[in-house]
Fold:
Amino acid sequence: MSRITTAVSRRIVGGSTQGSQTADIRSSRTTGQTPVLQRAVVIEVFDNPSALTEEQKQALVNRVSNPDFIDILPVNAILARIVSDSQDSGSSTGIILFPFFSSCMILPVVPGEHVQVMFPDQSHSGNTLGYWMCRVQEQGTVEDVNYSVHDRRFLQNYNPQNRSTSERSQESSEVAPGFPNGAGTESTRTLRITGSNAQNPYDGIIAESVAIRNFTFEPVPRLNKRPGEFVLQGKNNSTIILGEDRTGPVLRATADAIGTAGSIDMVAGRGRKLPDPVSSDPEETAPRLIQNSRSQREVNKTPYMSEGRQNNPREGDPDFTNDAARILITMQSEADKNFGVTQLSFPEDVLVPVQPKDGTPGTLGKSYVVAKADNIRLIARKDDDVDGTILIIREGASDDEMAYFYIDDAGEMQLYSPKMYFGKSTGETEPYIKYTKYKDAINNLQSQIDALKTFCDSLTTTLQTAFASAMAIPYSPIVGLSSQISGLVSNKTSLATSFGTKPNDTTTIIDDSKSSVIFGE
Structure:
């Protein structure tokens, strides 16, 4: 009786003034027990109130019971229809609801979904000012982080207890999940049907909503959480898990028990390798899929309806191998093992990464920030007011310990390390060449080549001159030739000097050209 009285009083006694009613009558109609939370169906979401046109605002005036709020809508306010206690069956007038939480935390909701609503001063203000708190949490066979079809909770098949064991194992064709209005009968409708075409109001909501254009319907794996985890999920497969170091299922393996390991796991695209075709069995951490009556894919939350299938027990679990993109921040982990780095096949003769502190208890030296995705970019901004820089540094107390990569605000790049390798690091590696020392060696060699050329030119000229004028008397020396050769011999010291540095000094210069820092193939 109190529920009926309350519902009637809410419809009759709205507003903050008594009008022609006496205080006694008003009091009698508002003293019934009012539910703390009420349920409402979202008709529209005002994700950008400033974009509303005057025509849209005027249309709202005729649709809501509290039009005074139209010009002062906060972001994420909604247009809704209250459906608790069958209120919408009597009147389909909408109401503007403000978000319950401040703008520091803006929760997602989509037209057609149900939300929890509260009116903080209903006994005096009626339903004038209300707040929507969050989307209604439904049973496991209905709840969907992407988009919940709340009225499926009324359907008998959405509770496996309503199916016998034999029915669950029978081969049957899956029926595309629909979008019911209540339990399917006139007396059980959630939303009042208006107009002459008997259109499902939920279909009308989707067809007429502006905000729905900014939303993507897609299958999002469900996440099973550990008791100590704090989870934030977006509607389109983005998740932040604040908990412990976790690489897989909820049930912790013995190997995971390494002590305190606070972690923040930010991931987009869990279980992204979805079944194709839709009816096939899922692999890895992907969910089972089904196509609904709107030709959209969604998570199959009632697989038992077809041949007794079961949910994928690994659905939505963290998968460091296949998840699309992840940033892991953890105070203690063996992340190189968890991400498969130590299992990669590295080339021969290179520095192979090893797991730091492998198997060692404690947190020091085992914290990580790891990023993994199909593609990774680091971009430092450059515009008229900003000259960005990039720095990756390995701390060290001396030049023999520090290493870093730095791009300064002029775009110049510095790579420093006590010893660095390009290509292979062991085996047949060679030091890179120092330019200045190499230049000294080449210049020295060039000077010797020039001196040799000069000597050869001189020798050729001398011999040509000597033989051109020499007269030979049998068994007597050729005086002109002898004198020319004597001249060459007398100049041997200066010719030797023109050859430059001695060979053993040249070897020293070449050795000095080898880098003691940079090595490779």
